[in-house]
Amino acid sequence: MNGIVLFGLAAVGVATLAALYALLGSGNRLPLARRRPVPESRSGILERGTAAATTAIDALLRRRGTTTAAGILERAGVRMRLQDLVFVQIVVAVCVFAAGLLLGNIFVAFLLAALVPVGTRLGLAMRIKRRQDTFADQLDDSLQLMAGSLRAGHSLLQSLASVARESDQPTSEEFSRVINEVRVGRDLGEVLDEAGARMGSQDFVWVSQAIAINREVGGNLADVLDGVGNTIRERNTVRRQVKALAAEGKLSAYVLMALPVGIIGILALITPTYIAAFTSGLLGYAMIAAGVVLLVIGGLWLRKTVRVTF
């Protein structure tokens, strides 16, 4: 038992140092030689080990193909490299696994380590959803700004650039990316379609199609954008009304999902021996697994019930 505790403490210490360096000491930085005229200092053991680990993870990810995972980070607006994120997940998993060993239960250790990638994926999904909703809320104002810029005599690219300068995140970031990709020679319609797919916005796909049709047949693009903007504004109004009406059902779903976890936590604090009975044999583990499966099924069912599409 003492050996497990010492191993857990050592693993927590090493993993914490590695995580701190991965979060604070990695990334693309300006070389030291370009900032001041002094020789670059030698890297330490921790830095070299972290660099070697991220390089190995990058090589492994390249062999397996990581376009989907990289696309998830891109849609979430996360600037961390994929190999750095994987490395941080491994370090955090080691930390929580060691913490589980310190608690004296290897099942809890494996469970906590398995929750790290699941929690990361859920966090990225929530970030993507929040980013896409914010982009959808800002789209009608962006179209109004584009139409005003076109009426002032600016070109389409100048209008897009004005939206990139004047709008908030994530609209400014996405429009800046559109401008940069067009400047390196890509087709505007293709770039706009990719932006709409990346943000999951059918409304922006309509904007891209309206711009493409206008470029082929001509006409007043400002009036076209005004019409599309009015339609999007009405859709946003309906979407907000639906969101408000479904808020009560979503809150009920959150309460029902959190209730079993809360009861288990309270019982673990009040009567730990009652909870310990579930981890004392195979039957208890089977009951825990069945409860988790039923909880996931119920969560998906509640999500389908309270999710309204139009």
Quick summary of this structure?
The chain has 310 residues and is mainly α. Helix content is 82%, strand content 0%. It starts with a helix and ends with a helix.
Give a verbal description of the structure.
- The chain is mainly alpha-helical.
- 82% of the residues lie in helices and 0% in strands.
- It has 14 helices and no strands.
- Helix 5 packs antiparallel against helix 6, helix 8 (171-183) runs antiparallel to helix 9 (188-199) and helix 10 runs antiparallel to helix 11 (221-245).
- The model is unreliable at 22-28 (pLDDT under 50).
Label this structure with key terms:
82% helix; 310 residues; 14 helices; mainly alpha
List strands and helices in order, with pairings.
Elements (H helix, E strand, L loop, with lengths): L1 H23 L7 H4 L9 H20 L2 H10 L5 H21 L3 H46 L4 H11 L4 H13 L4 H12 L2 H16 L3 H25 L1 H24 L1 H5 L5 H25 L4
Helix pairs in contact: 1-5, 3-5, 4-6, 5-6, 6-7, 6-11, 7-8, 8-9, 9-10, 10-11, 12-14
Oligomer: single chain
Main sheet, how many strands, which sense, barrel?
none
Overall form: flat
Number of strands: 0
With helices defined by DSSP (H or I, 4 residues minimum), what is the helix count?
14
Distance between the termini: 58 Å
Strand content: under 5%
User: What is Rg?
Assistant: 26 Å
The chain-level mean pLDDT equals 77
Indicate the low-confidence ranges by residue numbers.
22-28
Structural class: mainly alpha
**What string, H for helix and E for strand, traces the elements in order?**
HHHHHHHHHHHHHH
